[in-house]
Design brief:
With about 350 residues, this protein is of the alpha/beta class. The protein has 14 helices and 6 strands. InterPro entries: Nict_dMeBzImd_PRibTrfase, Nict_dMeBzImd_PRibTrfase_bact, Nict_dMeBzImd_PRibTrfase_N, Nict_dMeBzImd_PRibTrfase_sf. One of its GO terms (molecular function) is nicotinate-nucleotide-dimethylbenzimidazole phosphoribosyltransferase activity.
Length: about 350
């Protein structure tokens, strides 16, 4: 593979330099243990695959139960100006603020999974209130991608470094598995634009109805993505250029979460369509990052299957969910805990002797 050379910010550059592959010896030992447990080899399917993957990530044949956090990146998108979205853009701010009271969907599911919910303002168009919100605003929302770039390349890199910084600090505090999430009106539009470029798929295959648009609004949304690609001509060989031109600050920041998790040898759970698109961006920046990713569910959003195909990943769950926020990642935490308990607590045939 021919690598392109980019001029990167210091934090981004040093993070990329730290990313290496998984511990194969730990994975082999984990497989041996799983094959010796009181069951036919491979009979617990994806639970066994998860346990082996975790062994390779942590470098331990018996991976630990994780201290969990979901990082929800919040940002607004200028393409809202096109008028096809029926929801007020104020919802982005409202959801971020209500997270502190534990009232939004991901807050409930994170609480159920025993996970900490971390809300980051990386680009909400207004000021937000709440001590629970980490304020890392790069700018007050992006520009309208149908008229020009969403943001500058420098701003995209700054947003990626926000994700790296937040993730590094969580890991330093003892978190050892990260779930990804987001909130931002029109971010299915920006994700579809990014995905179309990075996957080579036609916009018709990746633009969905998002928050529930009718056919007229859907066609306007589809046309907005097509216009954005023509106006901006993002470079498919340069994922940061793609995010800067037609993406969003939430996508960029989540990209940083994936990169930082890999650099710190910690697993990172992909949520739905938007978080999956960010995962693809991260994998395009450094393919080794994929080894640290665990997919949760297949979102009902139209482009979700394309994302998973581009990542060559199979989801754990098919729940017809499309809320985002990190809800799928929260559900997946329960299955990841189950996989860890299987490899650590289940008896073996040797115990029968």
């Amino acid at each position: 593979m021919k690598w392109r050379v980019f001029i990167l910010g210091t934090l981004l550059k040093t993070t990329l330099e730290k990313i290496t592959g998984l511990d194969q010896e730990a994975m082999n030992l984990a497989r041996e243990r799983l094959d010796g447990l009181l069951k036919p080899p491979g009979s617990l399917g994806k639970l066994e695959e998860i346990a082996v993957r975790l062994a390779g990530i942590y470098g331990q044949p018996r991976p630990p139960l994780a201290s969990k956090a979901i990082v929800m990146m919040a940002a607004d998108n200028g393409v809202y100006q096109e008028g096809f979205n029926g929801y007020s853009q104020e919802i982005t701010k409202a959801v971020a603020e209500l997270a502190g009271a534990g009232l939004i969907g991901v807050a409930v599911l994170a609480r159920h999974a025993g996970a900490r919910l971390v809300v980051v303002d990386v680009g909400i168009k207004d000021e937000v209130e709440g001590q629970h919100i980490i304020k890392k605003k790069i700018r007050y929302g992006t520009d309208n991608i149908t008229c020009g770039p969403a943001m500058s390349r420098s701003e995209a890199e700054q947003a990626i470094e926000v994700g790296i910084d937040v993730t590094n600090k969580l890991i330093h505090e003892g978190i050892n598995i990260i779930g990804t999430g987001e909130v931002g009106i029109c971010n299915t539009t920006t994700s579809a634009a990014v995905l179309a470029v990075l996957s080579g798929a036609d916009p018709e295959l990746v633009v969905g109805k998002g928050t529930g648009a009718d056919e007229k609004a859907y066609q306007a949304k589809l046309q907005a993505v097509k216009n954005a690609l023509v106006v901006n001509r993002p470079d498919p060989t340069d994922p940061i250029d793609v995010v800067a031109k037609v993406g969003g600050l939430d996508i960029a920041a989540l990209t940083g979460c994936y990169l930082a998790a890999a650099a710190n040898k910690k697993p990172v759970v992909i949520d739905g369509f938007i978080a999956g698109t960010a995962a693809l961006v991260a994998a395009k920046i450094n393919p080794l990052v994929k080894e640290y990713m665990i997919p949760s569910h297949c979102s009902a959003e139209k482009g979700a299957q394309v994302v998973l195909q581009a990542l060559n990943m199979e989801p754990m769950l098919y729940m017809n969910m499309r809320l985002g926020e990190g809800t799928g990642a929260a559900l997946a935490f329960n299955l990841i805990d189950a996989a860890v308990k299987i490899i650590n607590e289940m008896g073996s045939f040797a115990d029968l002797a």
